[in-house]
Amino acid sequence: MAFTRDNFGPIGNVAKSGVSPVMWGYRTEDAIADVNTEGYFNAVADIVKVGDLVYCATSVGSTLVATLAVVRSNASGVVDIDNGTTLASTDGD
Fold it and tell me: What is the per-residue pLDDT across 34-57, written as a single tens digit (0 to 9) for each?
């Protein structure tokens, strides 16, 4: 699948100016290996900046995978996020 802008948005109250990183959220049925490929987020190159965080809710089959990734580069309209850190999710009940 491809990036879907409707599934991408800011988390929390986003400042309109300043240098603080913004945290974004993105949900997709694509695997994180696809999502963290350079160019996947090109459609939002106009709003993300290096150092922003992207909380990715992706899928492996029917299993949700939560990953926190950093925008590593955004140059000439090409966005690249790092591989991300998978957030552990357990349910012991």
Answer: 999 999 999 999 999 999 999 999
| Cβ 84 vs Cβ 32: under 8 Å | yes
Handedness of CA 20, 25, 30, 32 (dihedral sign): positive
Give me the residue label for tokens 């491809």: 2
- Kindly give the parts of the chain with pLDDT less than 70: 14-18
Locate 85 and state its tokens: 């850190």
Own/partner contacts of 75-83, CB < 8 Å, gap of 24 or more, are 77/42, 77/45, 78/38, 78/39, 78/42, 78/45, 79/38, 79/39, 79/40, 79/41, 79/42, 79/44, 79/45, 79/48, 80/38, 80/39, 81/35, 81/36, 81/40, 81/41, 81/54, 82/36, 83/32, 83/36
